[in-house]
Amino acid sequence: MIINILLTVIPSLALAVFFYRRLGHPFAPAVEGPSPAAPPDSPRRSRRLLALVFLLGFFIVIPAGIAELAVKNFSAALIPPALRPLWTAFVTVAMIEEGAKFLVIRLVVFPRKNLRLPRDTLIFAVCAGLGFALFENIIYSLDRRLTILIRGFTAVILHGIASGLMGFFAGRAQEEARRGRPPGKLFLRGYGTACFIHGLYDYLLFLPGFFPFLTLPLLLLSGLFLRFLLRRQERLGGAP
Length: 240
What we know:
mainly alpha
């Protein structure tokens, strides 16, 4: 049991510590706009916020789990058996879990005027996802060792990438808000992208045969897509 817990806890904590250390310097200079951004937080305050976001991501699994059970029970008699795996993957799991993490990003991270670039918002969003993944992995620790090794590591990557995508678009939304433009479309784009990747990941796990192994190239391509967005944003110098 102790080994199982270690296998599930270490990936999330290791990545969280990595991002925690990455915030040991002030954020990048502010982006020009009609509403000047606040001065950057100190490293200590930034790390405190990072720890808070991680803990919120951890504990928000509880209401998300309650919501999943409610949707599952409500839709049990409404969804045909052939469509249940698809419904469960994309609606019951992906939309609710990504929606829970989106609440953390929208209510806690997005209002921070000290976050100057999409990269900064992304870091906090990833840590919310890692907190979420940590709670899930503790649940996985009650399962078989093989399940732990597969889900314990890939689920951490999934939540990190999905949350990172939402964080990136939330950062873009911050830039739009500073310019007086409505940020809603960027929020929806980030949330929709995260739900699609998360739903497809879970759906592949529901399928028999070799399909679960397709989650590996899915995570790789998703990570490359996030990297592409970040590099393109850096080339544009933060401009929308």
